[in-house]
Design brief:
By secondary structure, the chain is α/β, with parallel strands linked by helices. 42% of the residues lie in helices and 14% in strands. The chain is flat.
Length: 85
Amino acid sequence: DSAAEDVLDNVLSQIDVPPLKFVAVSDRDDYLKAARDAGMFTCRVRPLNKRRGNVTADYNVEDAGSVQDVINEINGISFNFALKH
């Protein structure tokens, strides 16, 4: 087991929520792979002009502040919808 798997397993064992309800946010391949393998959504923080990494994430953002947009998308909330109502 890798350290990333141990961390994620520890979190999942303490919370009675299925992995699909989590979004793992990281810039590290080991954490993204472990999260993906556990069934979580994954979001890579990758600043502009930085390497892409070797693990494909469900979402990519340039900074941690943009993670809220990912969460809103997963939950079906869109900025345009909110503006129209």
